[in-house]
Batch of 2 targets.
Target 1
Amino acid sequence: EMGIAHAVVTSVNRDDQPDGGAGIFAETIRWIRRLSPETSVEVLIPDFLGDDDALATVCDAEPEILNHNTETVPRLYRRVRPKGRYERSLGLLRRAKELDPGTVTKSGVMVGLGETRDELLQVFADLARCGVEVLTVGQYLRPSAKHLPIERYYAPSEFDDLREKALALGFKHVESGPLVRSSYHAERQVDGVRHTSPLNGRGDSSVSGDLRKAE
């Protein structure tokens, strides 16, 4: 009834659940398909603490896009993502592609937390090696005084440069800009994927070259 073309499903971390909430993600995907077969589904998932079975549960539901954000560079993980592990996040993205090659994988990074350009480019290279096809790069904005401070603001030209460097590494779609978030213009990213292959058909996991800058 709402005419939603693309649904993005996310949640807070549910480490209190035996499967990390994987079953809820999977059931949500299936219910969207039942109620609105033409709606493509993107899920933004946690790392499930490295639980392969939990990841398989989500992949079995065949979301069109599976997103897991790496968030930052390895050196800053302890400060930015104290419960996360960089290699664990990479492993999840790599494994997701192995479990379901038809799912487009996606990840995102926030800048302005004290990382260097070289560190960012290394993260991009790591993600590309894991088969990630869609990348988002956005400016970290401090939600409150209790959160980490902003080390610096990136200029629009720097976001453009990062986008070009990411594309050169093989990413098929990159959103890079100050206001970009993981679901930023998600429907536009989906249009890029559909350009080569309808997402609901799941016949081709490639993403088109219809790439546009974040505004």
Target 2
Amino acid sequence: MRKIIAAISMGIFLMSCSSVGIPNSLIKSSLSKKVDGKKEFYFLKGETKVNRVFVEDKKLNIEIELKLDNSEKPIVALIDTELKYYPPKLYATNTRIKSISNIVYEKVATEVFTRIVQTILFNKEILNVGETINPDKIKDIYVGDSNVVVEFK
């Protein structure tokens, strides 16, 4: 009986919510499935890995590590991106590299990494929201103060 009452009250609570936040860890795990692993970029071979995902200044920030086959230290890039929601998926738009560390030739590396980022992130699916939330009930998805927010109709 308690479980039934708890389920009913939880259902009423969820129906009354106007918005809910998507945890950054969920976005990170979704991105990791698409980005992590061995890659060949033009004349470079290496391995990419998503280190962390967070929200800053109303933009989604993604830290990607690129370990080249012929280098000792991995290159770490901090990328900010805007999001666009096309039901039922969330896509990255306007990707921009904020900073790159562990590089020797900064200008060349920035250009190369910009091309890599555009290849793996620009207009690519970040998260399939339809797997967990009915897309018909979603009004909008936007970047909030500390995470991505789903606003319901």
